[in-house]
Every structure is written in structure tokens, then in C-alpha cells.
Specification:
The protein has 459 residues and is of the alpha+beta class. It has two domains: 260 residues, Baculovirus p35; 108 residues, RNA Polymerase Alpha Subunit, Chain A, domain 2 (Beta Complex), CATH 2.170.120. It is built from nine helices and 19 strands. The strands form four sheets. Strands 2, 3, 5, 8, 9, 15, 17 and 18 form an eight-stranded mixed beta sheet that branches. Strands 1-4-7-6 form a four-stranded antiparallel beta sheet, with helices on one face. Strand 2 and strand 3 form a beta hairpin. The chain starts with 10 loop residues before the first strand and ends with a helix. This is DUF2330 domain-containing protein. It comes from Polyangium jinanense. Keywords: Membrane, Signal, Transmembrane, Transmembrane helix.
């Protein structure tokens, strides 16, 4: 089994001291990973694997142990000043600008001044293991070690933990990511019910005229119906701003129940991430059908979003190096966001010389970056991610620096819909009719004045 490589399956324990555990089977829920970054570089010359790892967990705990199984004895080096989200953004931002003509929205800053991190190694022959017994045994039986990250957070009002980054390095000839993790402890019934609450609340519904418009409850129910696409908008927002937010909508509804107009002030207010969320929600709600009424009506409402108690897991897997590593048979939960050749100067701006040396990145060679996003929440039975090493594509092929780039799409006026075209023609006819009538009236008045002048008696 020594052919396996970096493993990011996690076992997590929240402890108050090395000997006494809290949050495991107790009233306080164990921390759950919301988002983690796994930046992988394989030093092909030495056969050594380098993994930069950091995670966001909630709820906060005074001390958390995270276990990463490795196929050989690892070394662990804390990198407390490294912002993993900013690092990934710095690597992909030049490519986005070059190929799409715009920069991606920057992620939320990784708060690194609340927690400290140290590491220690637990070998397969250790008498005591700090993690789930069945999960640990499945790796111990294959002679795996564990890189244990010990995260200490001072008491305070923080709701989550952002761990400092750790550099875990070990010998291995091949890249495999073990996605299988210990099963989660079932929450108490009251917590399970709380966790099922939809992270979307419709608030402050106001409709007029009251004699025509449906009730606030009916409007709220329609806005909540089939909320999956709307929550997808919010999931994308959470990738950049992991926080609660609100989208206000204002709509005019025709008697047949279709929308005459629907907009949000958020489409033009706030930062780009907030505007993208508002635009996404507006696009979906415009297609909603509302009750038929005798007359048109208007309404406004607030859509309040809050991060779910156990948000969808987001694991960013970023592979960087002089070869291209391809994930064979990825699950439906994983999608390839970026796959491209990086310019050396862009890598140099994103990573310090010390970090590039620590990751074993060669100087003067082409470097390839593959960025995957894995959203799988339940990983107790997840299949390992197998990556095949491939030579870099030839110059001119997709993703390479010399590949032809597409011009940014031109911004053109929105095309009229089939329903809008007759209305536009009707408005044009009415306008022409008014102009013709006004011209005829002016001519008649002028003619009458001229005739009246001729009929006046001479002095």
C-alpha cells in the first residue's frame, strides 16, 4: 500500500485537554468542516508529496485535533501567515482575466489571528489513537501514519474556526486523495430538526392594492417553492462571503400571474459578489407564476439567507506542478473549475520563493494547475480520488499559454421577447398616431387663423 499518496480524509476530535474529550457524544456538537483547501504538489525528482491544508470548522471549540492519514511517516510544518483562499485566487485570477476578460470575485479573507496550530505524528503502532476507532483501524491495518493538526482557539465570540495552514510532506510515488472520512455522530433530535430548517426565510412581504393582491402568506409560499435554484445562487455566494445576507425584490405582476417587472436594488448596490447573488435570484424569480387576479398588482419582499447549520461541504483540491494530474472517474459532487498552464511570473507573484522551494516546484519549467471543487457532504463511504499523471499538452492546445483566447462577449441590448415585440410595435403605432393627430390639429388651427384674418372688415 506504499503506492498511495496525499490523503485528505479527516478525523476530527474536539478536546479540552489531551486526555478529556468534549463534544463527542455530549450536548455540544462536534465541529464540522464547512470548507477546506488542499493544495498538492508532487516533487517528481524526489518522489515526495507536499500538501498545504487548512479548514473552516463550526461550531468553534477551544481545541480541535484533525487527523490526516499518510502512507509514510510525514513531516508537519505550520505556515500561520498563509491565506489558502487568497493563494488559490492569486493563481487562477490571471487565467480568468486572460480567457474571460474579467477577474473573479475575491474570496473572504482567511482569518488567521484567532487560532494557533502545531502538529505531531501518530504512527501505526501507537498504543492509543485519538480518532474514531473503526476509521483509524482501516488505515492502521495498511501501516499508515497520521499527521495530527492540533488547533487551539482562544475563548471568544467566534462562531467558527479557521485553522492556520499546515505543510504536510511525505514520501510516495503516486497521487491519490482518500475522501473517505469517519461517520458523523448523529445529533440529538432537537438539533437534527434545527439542521433541517431551510436557510431561506421570506420576510417583510408588502403587496398592493390589498383588495386585489394575494395574501402575504401566499406570496411567501410561492417565493419559497422550488427553492433549490435560489439556494444554488446562495451557495456560490458562500464561496466568497461565508455569511448571512438579504436580497430585497420589487415586482409588478400582471392579471394573468406573469411578471411585468422584477428587480432588486442589490443588482447595483454593494460589491460584485452581492450583485451576482441579487442578479441570480432575480433571474430565477422572473420565471415564477403568481395567482391570476382581476387587475395587476405589486409586491416587495426580503429574502433572508443564512448559512445552514451544517453547510454543504466545499473542498478545494488544487494540483500544481510540471505535470498534469487528471482525476479519473470523479464523482458527481466534484467539478473541474480550472485546468490551465500558469505563467511563471503569475506563480512567482502568488507564492514566495520559500514556499515554492518547500513545495518542490522546479524553476524554469512549465507549470500546470488543476482546480477541483468537491461538494460531497457524506464521505463515510466516499471513493478515493485517483489522479493519473500526464505530460503537459503541446503548445497551442486548450489550456496552454499559446492557446487562442476568446474575446470577451460584446454587451448588446437585450433582445426583445416574443411577448415584448407586439407591445413595442403597439407603442410605436400609438406614438405615430399621436404625432399625426397633433400635426393635423396645428394645421387646422393655423388655417382657421388665416381665414379669420381675411374675413376681418377693413378699417
Amino acid at each position: 500500500m506504499k503506492t498511495l499518496a496525499p490523503l485528505v480524509a479527516l478525523s476530527i476530535v474536539a478536546v479540552a485537554s489531551p486526555a478529556s474529550a468534549v463534544a463527542v457524544g455530549g450536548a455540544t456538537p462536534s465541529p464540522v468542516v464547512h470548507e477546506d483547501y488542499v493544495i498538492v504538489s508532487h516533487d517528481e525528482a524526489s518522489g515526495r508529496e507536499h500538501v498545504l491544508f487548512a479548514a473552516r470548522l463550526a461550531p468553534a471549540a477551544p481545541r480541535v485535533l484533525l487527523g490526516l492519514p499518510t502512507p509514510s511517516t510525514p513531516t508537519i510544518e505550520p505556515r500561520p501567515l498563509l491565506d489558502p483562499a487568497a493563494l488559490v485566487h492569486a493563481l487562477v485570477e490571471p487565467y480568468e482575466r486572460r480567457t474571460r476578460g474579467r477577474a473573479p470575485a475575491p474570496p473572504a479573507a482567511w482569518v488567521m489571528d484567532r487560532s494557533t496550530l502545531s502538529g505531531f505524528v501518530v504512527g501505526p503502532s501507537a498504543g492509543e489513537q485519538p480518532f474514531d476507532a473503526a476509521w483509524t483501524k482501516s488505515y492502521v491495518d495498511r501501516n499508515f501514519s497520521f499527521a495530527v493538526l492540533d488547533v487551539v482557539t482562544p475563548p471568544g465570540s467566534s462562531l467558527e474556526i479557521m485553522t492556520p495552514a499546515a505543510h504536510v510532506s511525505f514520501d510516495t510515488p503516486r497521487v491519490i486523495l482518500a475522501r473517505r472520512e469517519p461517520p458523523r455522530a448523529e445529533p440529538p433530535p432537537d438539533e437534527a430538526q434545527e439542521g433541517a430548517v431551510l436557510p431561506l426565510v421570506v420576510e417583510s412581504v408588502r403587496a398592493e392594492p390589498k383588495a386585489v393582491a394575494p395574501s402575504s402568506e401566499v406570496i411567501a409560499r410561492i417565493l419559497r417553492a422550488r427553492s433549490g435554484p435560489i439556494l444554488d445562487c446562495y451557495e456560490r455566494f458562500l464561496e466568497h462571503r461565508p455569511e448571512a445576507t438579504k436580497v430585497t425584490i420589487e415586482a409588478s405582476i400582471r392579471p394573468k400571474g406573469d411578471t411585468a417587472s422584477l428587480r432588486s436594488p442589490g443588482e447595483r448596490d454593494g460589491d460584485e459578489t452581492t450583485r451576482e447573488l441579487a442578479r441570480c435570484v432575480v433571474t430565477i424569480l422572473r420565471a415564477r407564476q403568481f395567482p391570476r387576479t382581476d387587475e395587476g398588482w405589486k409586491f416587495s419582499a426580503d429574502l433572508a439567507f443564512k448559512p445552514p447549520r451544517t453547510p454543504a461541504r466545499r473542498t478545494h483540491v488544487v494540483l500544481v506542478g510540471p505535470s498534469r494530474y487528471v482525476w479519473k472517474d470523479p464523482p458527481a459532487s466534484a467539478r473541474l473549475l480550472h485546468d490551465f498552464e500558469a505563467r511563471p511570473e503569475d506563480v512567482a507573484r502568488a507564492m514566495t520563493p520559500d514556499l515554492r522551494r518547500a513545495l518542490g516546484l522546479p524553476e524554469g519549467k512549465r507549470l500546470w494547475i488543476s482546480h477541483w471543487l468537491d461538494r460531497d457532504v457524506r464521505r463515510a463511504l466516499a471513493e478515493d480520488a485517483l489522479f493519473d499523471r500526464e505530460a503537459l499538452p503541446a503548445d497551442g492546445e486548450p489550456g496552454t499559454l499559446s492557446a487562442p483566447t476568446q474575446k470577451p462577449p460584446e454587451i448588446r441590448p437585450t433582445a426583445e421577447t416574443a411577448r415584448e415585440k407586439p407591445r413595442a410595435r403597439s407603442r410605436g403605432k400609438r406614438t405615430r398616431g399621436v404625432l399625426v393627430a397633433a400635426t393635423a390639429l396645428l394645421f387646422t388651427v393655423a388655417l382657421a387663423l388665416w381665414l379669420a384674418r381675411d374675413e376681418r372688415p377693413s378699417a
